[in-house]
């Protein structure tokens, strides 16, 4: 009897998921002159490719769970609204950063957002929200109206990922810190982490599961680069030169692996790595 009740409860919860998620979508009629076109959409990892026309891989890199969407219409104009749930807030923000237009200003919409004449995006908690208008024209006012509704509907935190505070601000290129979901610096050993662009090169931070696994990765990195020289940084460090990454310096601090690459000639990679390591706890 208890097993039956439990099964019913689980089934009810699963059925309720699309309803809860769909509640985040706006009513098209909430913005004057707009009406819903067609039915609500729901996609998961096994059928997202049908909707994204081959562009689903980028979503999967950032921990895609499901997408709910709606299309609003006013005369010949349409606005496609999609809310993607990612595996965590860090990956939702990473998805946002991977699609943001660096030529346009960002705004405090949710965690961060951007509104243009035909496109608006923002991240909030574990959700990535995007709106696209057609045909050509300036839909800024309408997009802002829908974004305001969506920002209120989407639940959760608006805090930026803590990783953005790990990188020293001196010489850091604004808005350059981003999540790399796989192969940091193009190295498969560095599975996922953050990169920040500096005037003198790139800095990176990767978090391993434990100090032991981090030490194993560092040992394999030394083998990968060949000739290395020890450096006194945190628990261990080394310098090297690579065909693609140029002058570089790497270190381990507990379960953290970090460092700098593509160093500008004459720049002290050890000194910059020491600054980077100081921000990691």
Q: What's the SSE blueprint?
A:
Layout: H1 2-22, E1 35-36, E2 41-44, H2 48-52, H3 57-61, E3 64-74, E4 77-86, H4 89-99, E5 112-115, E6 119-124, E7 127-134, H5 140-153, E8 178-180, E9 193-198, E10 201-207, H6 211-225, E11 228-230, E12 236-242, E13 246-253, E14 256-261, H7 269-278
Antiparallel strand pairs: 1-3, 2-3, 3-4, 4-7, 5-6, 6-7, 8-9, 9-10, 10-14, 11-12, 12-13, 13-14
What does this structure look like?
Helices cover 29% and strands 30% of the residues. With 281 residues, the chain is of the alpha+beta class. Strands 1, 2, 3, 4, 5, 6 and 7 form a seven-stranded antiparallel β-sheet that branches. β12 and β13 form a beta hairpin.
Query: What structural class do helix, strand and pairing data support?
Result: alpha+beta
Would you identify the CATH architecture of the largest domain? 3-Layer(aba) Sandwich
Q: Give the number of domains.
A: 2
- Low-pLDDT segments: 1-20
Please give the radius of gyration in angstroms: 22 Å
Order of helices and strands, N to C?
A: HEEHHEEHEEEHEEEHEEEEH
How many β-strands, per DSSP? 14
Q: Remind me, CATH topology of the largest domain? A: Protein Transport Mog1p, Chain A
Looking at CATH, the homologous superfamily of the largest domain is PknH-like extracellular domain
Mean pLDDT over the full residue set: 92
| CATH class identity of the largest domain | Alpha Beta
């Amino acid at each position: 009897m208890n097993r039956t009740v439990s099964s019913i409860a689980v089934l009810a919860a699963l059925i309720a998921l699309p309803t809860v998620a769909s509640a985040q979508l706006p009513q098209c009629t909430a913005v004057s002159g707009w009406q819903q076109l067609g039915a609500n959409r729901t996609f998961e990892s096994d059928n997202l490719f049908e909707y994204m026309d081959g562009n689903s891989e980028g979503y999967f890199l950032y921990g895609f769970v499901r997408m709910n969407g709606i299309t609003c219409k006013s005369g010949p104009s349409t606005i496609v609204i999609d809310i993607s749930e990612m595996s965590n807030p860090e990956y939702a923000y990473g998805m946002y950063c991977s699609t943001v237009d660096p030529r346009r200003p960002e705004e405090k919409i949710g965690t961060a957002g951007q509104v243009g004449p035909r496109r608006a995006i923002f991240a909030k908690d574990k959700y990535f929200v995007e709106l696209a208008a057609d045909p050509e024209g300036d839909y800024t006012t309408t997009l802002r109206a829908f974004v305001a509704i969506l920002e209120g509907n989407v639940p959760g935190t608006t805090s930026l990922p803590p990783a953005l505070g790990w990188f020293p601000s001196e010489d850091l290129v604004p808005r350059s810190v981003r999540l790399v979901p796989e192969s940091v610096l193009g190295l498969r050993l560095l599975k996922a982490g953050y990169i920040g662009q500096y005037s003198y090169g790139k800095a990176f931070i990767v978090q391993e599961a434990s100090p032991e696994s981090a030490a194993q990765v560092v040992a394999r990195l030394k083998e990968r680069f060949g000739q290395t020289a020890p450096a006194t940084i945190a628990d261990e460090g080394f310098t090297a030169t690579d065909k693609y990454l140029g002058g570089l310096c790497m270190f381990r601090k507990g379960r953290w692996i970090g460092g700098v690459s593509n160093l500008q000639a004459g720049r002290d990679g050890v000194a910059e790595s020491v600054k980077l390591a100081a921000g990691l706890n």
